[in-house]
Specification:
The mean pLDDT is about 85. The chain has two domains: about 1-230, Rhopdopsin 7-helix transmembrane proteins, CATH 1.20.1070; about 230-265. It is mainly alpha-helical and about 270 residues long. The radius of gyration is 21 Å and the shape is globular. Helix 9 runs antiparallel to helix 10. The protein has eleven helices and no strands.
Length: about 270
């Protein structure tokens, strides 16, 4: 009974903290810069409340299928948020970049996810769950690792990208990254759990870490954002050169396909 009260308290705390994050997103006009992240936060609240209500009235198998669909939508939104973060970081030079640059960022994150996918299945998972359950956990862990990578890249290259801890992009990435580290750690520990009680304790740790992530966002968003700094001349030159090389490659490929099509018609 006490444990049920603890679970309820954590769930309510996360719900209230999520609501506070959404309020801060609109109060600080962050939604203008990161609209997809705002949509994700609203979706997270609505889907969590919906799942909580559904769990009381649906059979376990039906509930799992609903949760599986929710995980797919959740992963798609997180992917869009990560692309949005990367694109937002490039604000100082976006006007000089080709329109396809945002697509290229998405492709890079997709490639990273595809490379991680085969290794995201933890040892022993294939023997302890169904195929659908395996895909569910593999998807979840892939997105955790991708979030960690994006966080590490932004934090590690913060000086080159001229961003700091008061910039919204790094604040969002930090929350995502730290929660993902805990979530991935919990997933590894759960593969070695021997009782249901241990499994539930790890779930509470993950839920508590998510509450800490939300609280971090509330505190961070409550502060005024730092004025965005311009890239260094070296970084600006590098980005523009990379964009130019990408544009040249795309044009060459387009002309090559056109020439091949013309030869085929002849």
């Amino acid at each position: 009974m006490i444990l049920n009260h603890i679970d309820t308290a954590i769930w309510v705390a996360c719900l209230l903290a999520s609501g506070m994050v959404i309020v801060m997103l609109f109060f600080r006009n962050i939604w203008r810069t990161l609209p997809i992240f705002c949509v994700y936060c609203i979706w997270d609240v609505v889907s969590n409340v919906g799942l909580s209500l559904a769990s009381q009235h649906l059979q376990d198998l039906v509930f799992f299928h609903i949760e599986f669909v929710r995980a797919i939508i959740d992963s798609a939104l997180i992917f869009c948020v990560l692309v949005e973060l990367a694109w937002s970081v490039l604000r100082p030079v976006r006007a000089s970049l080709p329109r396809s640059s945002m697509v290229l960022l998405g492709v890079l994150i997709l490639v990273a996810g595809a490379a991680i996918w085969p290794f995201a299945a933890l040892p022993g998972m294939e023997h302890s769950t169904s195929r659908e359950g395996l895909i569910f956990m593999q998807l979840q862990q892939t997105m955790w690792i991708v979030r960690i990578l994006v966080f590490l890249v932004l934090a590690g290259a913060s000086q080159l990208l001229s961003i700091g801890w008061r910039d919204r992009e790094l604040q969002v990435a930090t929350g995502f990254g730290l929660y993902a580290i805990v979530g991935l750690t919990v997933a590894v520990l759960q593969t070695h759990q021997t009782t249901t009680v241990q499994y539930q304790q790890y779930e509470r740790i993950a839920a508590a870490s998510y509450f800490c992530c939300l609280l971090y966002w509330v505190v961070s968003f409550a502060q005024k954002e730092a004025e965005r700094r311009e890239f260094t001349p070296q970084m600006r030159s590098f980005l523009l050169a990379a964009a130019g090389a990408t544009r040249t490659t795309r044009v060459a490929m387009t002309e090559s396909r056109k020439e091949k099509s013309d030869r085929d018609e002849r």
